[in-house]
Amino acid sequence: MSDSTMPSSISSQQDEEKAIQPPVVSESPALDSALPPEGGLRGWLCCAGGSLGLFATLGFLNAIGIFQTTYQETLLKDYSSSDISWIFTIQLALIWAPGSLFGRIVDTYGPRPVMLPCTFLCLFSLCMTSLATEYYQIILAQGIGYGLGAGGIFTTCLVCVSQWFVKQRGLALGITVAGSSIGGVIFPFFLRLVMEDVGFNGMVRYTALFLGIALVGAFFLLSARLPPKKWDSEMAWIDFKVFKNRGFAFYCIGSYFVMWGLWAPFDYLPSMAQLSGMSDSLALYLLAIVNGASLFGRIIPGHIGDKVGYFNIIVASAFLSCIAILCLWLPFDYHSSNAGLIVFAVAYGFFSGAFVSIMMPCCAKSGSLETLGRQIGTYQGVIAISTLTGLPIMGAILGRQHNTTYMGMQVFAIVTMFIGSVFLLVSRNVLAAAHGTWKY
Q: For the Major facilitator superfamily (MFS) profile domain, which residue ranges apply (predicted)?
């Protein structure tokens, strides 16, 4: 899914970013000491903890295609693809929707008040999933329970890493989000091999144990750079006034449409490959290939974005993700090719990974520092709505075609991602013109 982008930034973090903005340069020792150290041992350990956290949350969610295919063939075979996709849609939406709440808690009290209960909730929800026999039980456990816990961990990881970096934030967050790509590589193999040995329910329990080990590591490695502070009851959660900033408004619209179609290959590529004659094992391993390629897509473009501008990177990655579906996935709905689907998995993994890793740095840069916290909370709400509706729409389209062709779903993804890419380009041009530079 990952593998992302940032949850609510703190007011003092806004001040420190102001301090490094040209042309104002301060030589005050007190001000300089308040700036992030751009890493250091604790900063990079925090980055490692963030990678572990995203490995166990968004990385696990990147393997949703395994569950989609398994549910369609076994426990939920009487339900439509659209019905089943709601399980993962709720998970993805809850990654984003409560980000403003969790971000403010981390900003105020540090990471542990969020990490501890959310880790327990994730593990408990997976154990309940292993006992579920009805659709509504899976929705409650795997959809709502795990999604809410994963959302808290996801937000905590990104907030903590952001506190340690400003100038290298694109690289640091790219490395952090790359943890989700590593999870997306490992989990398709892990889930399939364990399921063959102990069955589906046993596989879910072993997965909970595996995730628990990673989350314990994240719990001890994550740290807040800034001390706890008093809760600010006057801060707005979501502020629609930020849409008066045209650059930010266009960015939200563009991100909404791109995210509508972005998750299609993660959910439906394995089942399409099986339908076209690919072996079950290779079809499921396509997810590992997608996520393996996204590992590089989430690190390299973020580092380049620190130099040439985040918006230049996100516009290019959105257009190229759309082109990959059009030119490398859609044709194989007519002429199946194992090699062709593998090429698509590599290309799409890299470009979509770049988009996810650069989303939140772009959000932070699309408005003023004075409204940073509000615009990030508002942006997360927009993305939550997008992820809540995209997969069910594509599942309904697939159901109307009796699960025999994926063309309608692919065309939907292409059109929405192209529209989103155009709006992102408009946003980039508006903001670049306002700041008088092409590096935006």
A: 46-428
Please tell me the distance from the alpha carbon of residue 144 to that of residue 146, in angstroms, as a whole number: 6
CA angle 209, 183, 415 (to 5 degrees): 135
* pTM of the predicted structure, to 2 decimals: 0.78
Strand blocks (E) in 17-122: none
Q: Which of 207, 183, 175, 228 is nearest to 49 (CA)?
A: 175
Nearest to 121 by CA among 148, 94, 103: 148
Positive/negative CA dihedral, 36, 213, 109, 154: positive
**Distance in angstroms (rounded) separating the CA atoms of residues 322 and 411:** 10
The SS3 of residue 168 is coil
Q: Which residue from 160, 153, 118 is spatially nearest to 9, judged by alpha carbons?
A: 160
Q: Which two tokens stand for residue 275?
A: 């339908």
Q: How many CB atoms lie within 10 A of CB 312?
A: 20
* Rounded Cα distance, 365 and 368, in Å: 8
∠ CA 266-90-84, nearest 5°, is 65
Task: Give the burial class of 157: count Cβ atoms within 10 A of its Cβ; 0-12 exposed, 13-18 middle, 19 or more buried.
Answer: buried
Give the domains, in start order, of the chain with CATH numbers.
11-435 (1.20.1250.20)
Instruction: Give one DSSP letter per residue of 380-419, joined into a string.
Output: HHHHHHHHHHHHHHHHHHHHHTTTS--HHHHHHHHHHHHH
Among candidate residues 261, 264, 266, 257, the one with its CA nearest the CA of residue 293:
266
Q: Where are the alpha helices (DSSP H) in 309-371?
A: 310-324, 338-365
Tokens of 168: 């290298």
Q: Which of 383-387, 389-393, 409-413 has the highest mean pLDDT?
A: 409-413
* Alpha carbons 389 and 340: distance in angstroms, whole number: 29
pLDDT in tens, 11-67: 444 444 443 343 333 333 333 445 556 667 888 899 999 999 999 998 898 777 788
374 confidence band (pLDDT: 50, 70, 90): low
For residue 23, cis peptide bond before it (omega within 30 degrees of 0): yes
Of 149 and 189, more confident: 149
Residue count of the chain: 440
Alpha carbons 429 and 130: distance in angstroms, whole number: 49
Residue 94: partners with Cβ closer than 8 Å, 6 or more residues away: 144, 147, 148, 150, 151, 384
